[in-house]
Amino acid sequence: MKDKNRLYKLNVFDILLGVGVLVFSIAPLVMAISAPKGTTAQIYRDGKLINELKLSTPGIFDIGDNVEVEVKNGKIHVSKTNCPRKICAHEGWIEAPSQKIICIPKRLIIEIKAGGNTKSYDAVSY
Q1: What is the Cα 34 distance to its own chain's centre?
Q2: SS (H, E, C) 35-48
Q3: CB neighbours (10 Å) of residue 96?
Q4: Quick count: other Cβ atoms within 10 Å of Cβ 41?
Q5: Is residue 73, in this structure, part of any structural domain at all?
Q6: What are phi and psi for residue 106, nearest 5 degrees?
Q7: N or C: the chain end with fewer CB closer than 10 Å?
Q8: What's the structural domain count of the chain?
């Protein structure tokens, strides 16, 4: 009986392991909350900058080739396109500097940029 009760006692290593797991599970949430928000959206076609939109100015903008983007609440998304599968429209809203919307049939990239000297990190570079 004494050996059976000994299996259920916690030691220092069990507590340290529990604290470590807790810290590493909360760290990504803290990084996501403190991540800088983007201030502008740069729109590229064939690798050339064709438009730059401020995310603080709401509206629907025609960017050519039957593609419209909507800016609202500091976010942007493709609201109208005539692509065959409309994958770029299904990407949804983006707001962080590490996010992009890519439309291969229209050769289009929408990329969020942080303003000023703000350095932005994602899970890979951090």
Answers
A1: 13
A2: CCCCCEEEEEECCE
A3: 15
A4: 24
A5: yes
A6: -95, 0
A7: N
A8: 2
